[in-house]
Amino acid sequence: MWQDGGELGTEGLGRGVARCEGIFCCEDPVQTLTSVHLVDTETRELVYALIVSAEAQGPLVTRTFEVELPAGTVGNKKIMYTNPYQSYRTFTLRSNQPWLVHFTPQRMQLPAGATRPLGLTFDARAATTGILDVLVFVNDEEDKTEECFKVRVRIYR
Questions:
Q1: Are 38 and 20 in contact (CB under 8 A)?
Q2: Which residue has the higher pLDDT, 103 or 39?
Q3: Per DSSP, what are the bridge partners of residue 50?
Q4: Which DSSP string corresponds to 85-131?
Q5: pLDDT tens digit sequence for 134-156
Q6: Is the pLDDT of residue 7 over 50?
Q7: Partners of 116 in the beta sheet?
Q8: Which of 114, 125, 130, 139 qualifies as a cystine partner to 110, CB 3.0-4.6 A?
Q9: Do residues 58 and 28 lie in contact, with contact meaning Cβ atoms separated by under 8 Å?
């Protein structure tokens, strides 16, 4: 099933092919072309080939923070997070800059309405001076983004 609701044409593809699904997951706004090849697993023959155009918009940022740290150092920041649901949930943290930020804990389990600090460790030991926008994704059990924070990191000498 494609974004516009259309389905991949399967006429002439043989038995057993009813639908082709794909997931496009991206942290930054981008437009890309991807080749998709459908291959018969028994004969290893190419059955169908197409080019898929995918476009991603930036995530909805719900909160913004700022961090400043000298190049060559490590710094920490805590962000409070509340489970907005009326049930127990497990959340996983990801970032678009995994080389710069690490999470403690990376996976957290929260009762309904509970609040817990998220620990962010910024490792600027290999960074050069400048400003980086780090997106922090709070994802659910199915790896769907529940919330997105932006941390503007200024690295100075």
A1: yes
A2: 103
A3: 36
A4: SSS-EEEEEEES-TTTEEEESSEEEE-TT-EEEEEEEEE-TTPPSEE
A5: 999 999 999 999 999 999 999 99
A6: no
A7: 81
A8: 114
A9: yes
Q: Across 3-7, 58-62, 119-123, which has the greatest mean pLDDT?
A: 119-123
Phi-psi region of 5 (alpha: psi -120 to 50; beta: other; left: phi over 0): left
Q: Whose structure tokens read 């960074």?
A: 127
- 89-95 and 130-139 as β-strands: parallel, antiparallel, unpaired? antiparallel
What lies within 8 Å, CB to CB, of 142 at 6+ separation is none
Measured at the CA of 28, the angle between CA 81 and CA 53, to 5 degrees, comes to 135
Separation of alpha carbons 99 and 34, rounded Å: 26
Query: Higher pLDDT residue, 9 or 120?
Result: 120
Structure tokens at 120: 């962010």
CA angle centred on 154, ends 150 and 157, rounded to 5°:
165
Answer for the pair 110, 116: CB distance below 8 angstroms, yes or no: yes
- Tokens coding 30: 């981008």
φ/ψ of residue 66, rounded to 5: -130, 140
Dihedral over Cα of 128, 155, 73, 138: its sign: negative
